[in-house]
Design goal:
The chain is of the alpha+beta class. It is about 45% helix and about 15% strand.
């Protein structure tokens, strides 16, 4: 028997098994889940909590342990975000030559820094996280299974430009 004929017969038989007289499914308006859940742009605590939640969902997908928020790392991230704005460049060195570890130590953190992600954008937190996840180096900072703590902060300029800093540590 020809394969095309066999395929056609199979479709007819399967079609006969389909239920009939089903009520149409009402159409729903499209909903953007990220927009529905987005915190206000002036609510840093809610934005940080959402980033932590999303990072932990991503980590759970690969079996990595959840990260715990660390206020000392948050403070180091906030200081660096503001400093990058003052320097008008996104880079890992502070205007005083400080490294991510130096900035964390100044805030009293005595653990090990796993990595730091930075960005300057006009995007929101989820778009920034998606950009970090699309690049291997920044994704590795977020997904490193040895990390156990997270610091996250941003600084928004009056123009709307945002400077983001994410630290992972153990």
């Amino acid at each position: 028997m020809n394969i095309n004929v066999l395929a056609m017969v199979s479709l007819v038989v399967l079609g006969a098994c389909m239920p009939r007289n089903l009520a149409p499914v009402p159409a729903m308006a499209p909903v953007d889940p990220a927009a529905a859940m987005a915190p206000a742009a002036d609510d840093p605590a809610a934005i940080s909590a959402r980033v932590l939640q999303q990072v932990n969902i991503l980590r759970a997908n690969i079996g990595a342990p959840a990260l715990m928020p660390n206020p000392q790392l948050d403070a180091a991230a906030a200081a660096h975000s503001r400093d990058m704005s003052a320097q008008n460049r996104a880079w890992h060195w502070g205007s005083d030559g400080s490294s991510p570890l130096d900035r964390a130590r100044r805030q009293g953190f005595m653990g090990t820094i796993v990595g730091e992600n930075i960005s300057e954008t006009y995007e929101n937190d989820m778009e920034t996280l998606a950009a970090w996840m699309s690049t291997r180096d920044t994704r590795d900072v977020i997904m490193d299974p040895s990390a156990s703590q997270l610091g996250f902060a941003f600084f928004r300029e009056p123009s709307g430009k945002v400077w983001w800093t994410l630290l992972t540590a153990r």
